[in-house]
Write a structure and sequence with these properties.
With 231 residues, this protein is an alpha/beta fold. The chain contains seven helices and six strands, in the order ααββαβαβαβαβα. Helices cover 37% and strands 17% of the residues. It has a six-stranded mixed sheet, with helices on both faces. The longest helix is centred in the first third of the chain and has 16 residues.
């Protein structure tokens, strides 16, 4: 039962005793706040005649640096005429793989019932998988890593569907080796999915949560847009 309804029902029977009739009356008759739906976690950005592109934006913050870089890339995809679906992984309920192996015994169905179940069919339909992530502890986010782990459920004899792959990343550091570990892991993911890498863009020198405002250099947004045009 929804929490407020439970409290209201309880007060109707015991409000006079527990809180006093005046308090109970005010609670039961006060104007209820309007409920606003949460922003969608899956957005169908564009329907085109080109490739089917699934974009995984794994940052927990919307409209931050990674999200802006992702949207710049998406603008290029839309301009080129591709079909684009954008996923906000940071807003989804998703666990990592349990390693139970049940999926390999029950027809490649993952037994973990969370938001990943919505993503399996989208992954199956896409031609290109775009992984967008801020740099957390020198690699991709845990949420994006969980998505990758959960793909094991659809593997058959350690074989996976072949997809084109793209990596978009942001970081505060801007050193020569800042993205080395993350890129190395991306290469492994791409090889498992057929080895069809079609783009990597890593934007260093971004202002992160340590400052009062997040900021990404406009040159990164322009470069990501042009990379989208090249797909």
């Amino acid at each position: 039962m929804e929490r407020r309804k439970f409290i209201r029902n309880s007060l109707m029977t015991a409000g006079g005793v527990l809180l006093g009739s005046a308090v109970a009356y005010r609670f039961l008759h006060e104007e209820q706040p309007k409920e606003y739906p949460l922003p969608p976690t899956i957005e169908n950005i564009h329907k085109g005649k080109g490739k089917n592109v699934l974009v995984l934006m794994s940052a927990g913050t919307r409209h931050g640096n990674t999200d802006r870089l992702t949207d710049a890339y998406i603008r290029g995809l839309v301009k080129k005429g591709h079909t684009v679906t954008k996923i906000y992984l940071g807003s989804m309920r998703m666990a990592g793989c349990r390693g139970c192996g049940a999926c390999q015994r029950n027809g490649n169905r993952c037994v973990v019932q969370d938001d990943m179940q919505q993503l399996y069919p989208l992954f199956a339909q896409c031609d290109t998988l775009v992984m967008a992530s801020p740099l957390y502890f020198w690699t991709i986010t845990a949420r994006l890593k969980a998505f990758v782990e959960r793909l094991y459920a659809i593997s058959k004899e350690d074989k996976y569907p072949e997809k084109e792959t793209v990596l978009l990343m942001t970081a505060g550091d801007d050193k020569e080796n800042t993205f080395d570990h993350a890129q190395s892991y991306f290469h492994i993911i791409s090889s498992v999915l057929g080895g069809h890498e079609v783009g990597i863009y890593c934007a260093g020198g971004c202002t992160g949560c340590e400052k009062t405002a997040r900021n990404i250099n406009m040159k990164h947004l322009e470069n990501a847009y042009r990379m989208g045009l090249d797909l």
